[in-house]
Design a protein that fits this description.
It is a single chain. With 222 residues, the chain is of the alpha+beta class. Helices cover 43% and strands 18% of the residues. The chain has helices at residues 22-31, 62-74, 131-138, 148-201, 203-212; strands at residues 2-7, 14-19, 35-39, 47-50, 85-91, 95-96, 107-108, 122-126, 142-144. The protein has a 7-stranded antiparallel sheet with strand order 8-5-3-4-2-1-9. Strand 1 and strand 2 (14-19) form a beta hairpin. Helix 4 crosses helix 5.
């Protein structure tokens, strides 16, 4: 079972989703493309945040981080009973999973980078459970049961990747059009300057000037 929540801590609202147990955690790890939240040193659900395209995990609004962290704490049997629980979050791409790990277990490819200011993980300390936050999120909860949940996660991931490819292709076409426009402007400017020079000094002077500058490309005047 995968549970979906809607957080109004951001504008527009954000989607947060959670696996019911460690087996669903495996599916989220496999098909993820967002941020992962996990209680430090405690068994808990993996909580994922669906970020809008173009938003960095490093600039998530603090209220939205808190919503995700509260869900993480609430979905940890041990962490839900404790105060002062630390929740770690990191990009999905930084999650490490290999065959030696138990079902639902992950580690990080990189916990810290060479520069401490560029840490690959972040932490938030929750002094206590905030029932108002959990109740608000619970009212928005929807769920998808397996095997439909796996198919849904896969379909969403494929749609996301297709959208990224489309965006990349559109940006490439835009850049090529801009380069062609600038090249055309340069050709036209060169022709204009040559014509102005010819009007002032005559055709022979233009040819002499072109020869001094290494000649011109006849295509410039086509």
């Amino acid at each position: 079972m995968v549970y979906y929540f809607t957080s109004t801590a951001s504008d527009p609202p954000s989607t947060i989703y959670v696996g019911k147990d460690k087996f669903e955690n495996e599916e989220l790890i496999k098909y993820g493309w967002e941020e992962d939240f996990h209680a430090d040193n405690l068994s808990s659900a993996h909580v994922y945040l669906r970020l809008p395209t173009g938003q960095s995990w490093e600039d998530i609004p603090s209220a939205l981080v808190d919503d995700c962290a509260q869900l993480t704490k609430a979905n940890s049997i041990e962490g839900n009973k404790r105060d002062n629980v630390t929740v770690i979050y990191t990009p999905w791409s930084n999650l490490k999973k290999d065959g030696s790990m138990a079902v639902g277990q992950v580690s990080f490819h990189e916990a810290k980078k060479a520069c401490p200011l560029l840490s690959a993980t972040k932490r938030i300390l929750l002094p206590t459970r905030v029932n108002a936050t959990i109740n608000r999120l619970t009212k928005t909860r929807t769920e998808i049961a397996p095997p439909a949940s796996s198919a849904h996660l896969l379909a969403e991931r494929e749609a996301h990747l297709a959208g990224l490819r489309k965006m990349t292709n559109a940006e490439l076409q835009k850049r090529r059009k801009e380069e062609a426009r600038l090249a055309k402007e340069r050709r036209e400017e060169k022709v204009r300057k040559e014509r102005d020079w010819e009007e002032l000094y005559g055709e022979d002077a233009v040819r002499e000037r072109a020869a001094e500058q290494g000649g011109w490309d006849e295509d410039d005047f086509m």
